[in-house]
Amino acid sequence: MAYFTNPAISRESLKTILGNFEVIPEDHRLKLWMTAILQLPNNKTQYLKLRKAGQKLDSRVKLLEDNKTGNEAKVCNQVLKSLLAHCSSLRQFNHFNLADFVEPFSGLLVSHELIYFEVMLSILVNWCQHWFDHIPSPPYTLLSMLDIILLKNHPELYKHLANLGIRAIDYAWRWLTTSFKTIVDPREWLIVWDHILVNEPNFMYFIPLAACKLQSRYLMELSTHSEIMELLHSKIPLDANSLLKEAYQMCDATPVELQLTQMHHFHPLIPGYYPTLTPTDLITFRSTENSDVGNLNQLLDEVQETAAEVDNIIKEGVALRRWIMNQQEKLYIPP
C-alpha cells in the first residue's frame, strides 16, 4: 500500500488502481480526495465570506438535528448554510433535501470545514450537474435516460418494473439524493464514493442501475408496486464490491450513444473563485409538464404496451433525448 503515499500520484493512475477493485486505505483517503482526485483549491478567503453569509439565512432552511456526537452536526450545518448561501437554487427544490445528501460525508470531513465545503461543491458542480434542469422538480429528463440504459442492459427487468408503473425516477432519485447511503453498508460507503470520484461524472448513474439489477432475481418474483418499492428501499445493504463490479460491467456494456454524454467532464474548482449553481448558470424549464419529456415517456411506454422492438425504442429514445437537450436554451428562463 506504500504506493498510495506517493505525492505524485495522479487521478488517472488512481482510476486504474481502483478499476482493478483495489481500495484507498483510510489513512490516505482524505488527502487523496483533496489533492489527486478533486484537486481542491483551498479558497479560504472566499469561503469565510460565504460562511458569514450563511449565518444570515432564515430559520426555514432545513438543517440537521443536533443529535450527533461532538461538533459533527454543527460543522455539517455550517457547510449546509454556506452551500445554500452560495447556491440559492438549492433552496428551490421540492424533492431534494440537501442535508440528506451532505450529512453522510461528515464522518470523513467533519474536522475540516473548508475541505468539507469544497468537496460538496465540487460534487454538486460535476456529478450533479443536470439535477437542476427542472427545478423545482427532479431531473426527470436525465432520469428517463437511466430507463433507456436499463432497457438496453436488462429489458426483462425494465419491462417488469414498467408494467407496474416503476421507473428510474421512483427509485434512483431517492438513492442519488441521499448519496447512496442506504444502498451499502456504512463501513463500505466511502469505497463506493472513491470509485465515483475517480471516474467521470456519468459513471455515478450506473450505481443505482447496478443496485436494481443486482436484485433482479427477487424483483422479477414480485408482482405488486408496493412489494417492489419496499424491496428497493429496504435497509438491507448490498455488498460494495458486487455493486461496483456490476456498475463497471454495465458501463462497459452500454454503447457510447446511450452514455450520458451531455454531461461535461470533471472540472476541478479553481483558486480564488467558486462556481455557482444559480439559474444564470443552469438550464431551467418553465414547467414540469414539458411535452417533449412526455414524448420520451410515451416512447418508453410502448415497450410494455406493444412489445415494440427494444433496439428501435432505444434508438428513438436517444434521438429524442438529444433533441430535448438541444432545446434547453430555448426554454431557458432569463434571470
UniProtKB/TrEMBL annotation:
<dbReference type="Pfam" id="PF00566">
    <property type="entry name" value="RabGAP-TBC"/>
</dbReference>
<protein>
    <recommendedName>
        <fullName>Rab-GAP TBC domain-containing protein</fullName>
    </recommendedName>
</protein>
<feature type="domain" description="Rab-GAP TBC">
    <location>
        <begin position="23"/>
        <end position="200"/>
    </location>
</feature>
<dbReference type="InterPro" id="IPR000195">
    <property type="entry name" value="Rab-GAP-TBC_dom"/>
</dbReference>
<dbReference type="InterPro" id="IPR035969">
    <property type="entry name" value="Rab-GAP_TBC_sf"/>
</dbReference>
